[in-house]
Amino acid sequence: MSKIHMVLQGKGGVGKSLICALIAQKLVDDATGLKPEDILCVDTDPVNATFAGYKFFNVVKTEILDGSSDINKRMFDSLIETMANSDKPTVVDNGSTSFLPMSSYMAENSVIPMLEQMGKEVILHSVLTGGQATDDTISGLTSVLKTQPAKVVVWQNEYFGPVVRDGRPFSESKLYEKFRHKILGVITVRKLNQDTSARDMEIMISNRLTFKETMESPLFSLMPRHRLLTVKKDIFSQLDAIGI
Q1: What is the per-residue pLDDT across 13-69, written as a single tens digit (0 to 9) for each?
Q2: Average pLDDT in the 140-157 region?
Q3: Alpha-carbon span 34 to 48, nearest angstrom
Q4: 222-241 and 16-27 helices, crossing angle to 10°
Q5: What CATH number is attached to the domain comprising 112?
Q6: Which end of the chain is more exposed for a tag (fewer CB within 10 A), N or C?
Q7: Average pLDDT, the chain
């Protein structure tokens, strides 16, 4: 059974494309034996095609805008058909501007049950972030949990600070308790030292590089490479724990 990983979150600038890149890297990690050409990566973001910037994965850019630059839900048909006809593990990045149209399209057309009937396992990923965007990202996650009949991986991005609301972490929230049966796991992208590891990650992300590529890139010397490997091990071990 091939897995389809879709990242859905209505708030922009919270790390959706980074999460897609991390999932894709985990799928082609040395332990899996898969190569970049063995997975299907798709970027549907009509505004910021960040995921498509990762040349390592040869990401397919799917257009979802019509001639008037509006999002046309019918454009999603070809995306779903591509996923349904592929036997490869799939990673799909969905932009914040297309979050609501995509979510409603999937619900109205019973997309997830259809894909499951075709032998696919659909796993949704959504992001929570600290700082001012916490409430917005919680709203986006709530929508995903309420409307989509699939397991959800919640990513806590601590770049802007701890992910807390009313003094409580997500794992102690009413939302978590209500939907814990649908939550496959919680992955934390931890806040890093701004002078060292955080700066290393920023350089890697801005250049659309994978962890593997940084080991050979002249942009990184010995210690930055070591720190990036530490970050990679932390995130990948969390993904291993939930079977991804």
Answers
A1: 899 999 999 999 999 987 788 999 999 999 998 778 899 999 999 999 988 877 665
A2: 97
A3: 28
A4: 80
A5: 3.40.50
A6: N
A7: 94
pLDDT recorded at residue 43: 95
Q: Evaluate whether 76 touches 64 at the Cβ level (below 8 Å).
A: yes
Of 154, 89, 104, 84, the closest CA to residue 124 belongs to 154
Residue 234 inside a domain? The answer is: no
Cβ-Cβ contacts under 8 Å for 140 (sequence gap 6 or more): 8, 9, 10, 11, 99, 126, 127
DSSP bridge pairs for 126: 154
What are the tokens at 118? 């075709």
Q: Does residue 221 belong to any structural domain of this protein? A: no
Structural element, H or E, at residue 184: strand 183-189
Q: Flag whether 203 is in a domain.
A: no
| Residue 231, in any domain of the structure | no
pTM more than 0.70: yes
The tally of domains found in the chain comes to 1
- Domain hosting 79: range is 3-184
CA–CA distance, 164 with 162 (Å, rounded to integer): 6
Residue 205 pLDDT more than 80?
yes
How far, in Å, CA of 90 to CA of 95, rounded? 16
Tokens in use for 16?
Answer: 């959706």
CA–CA distance, 66 with 2 (Å, rounded to integer) = 31
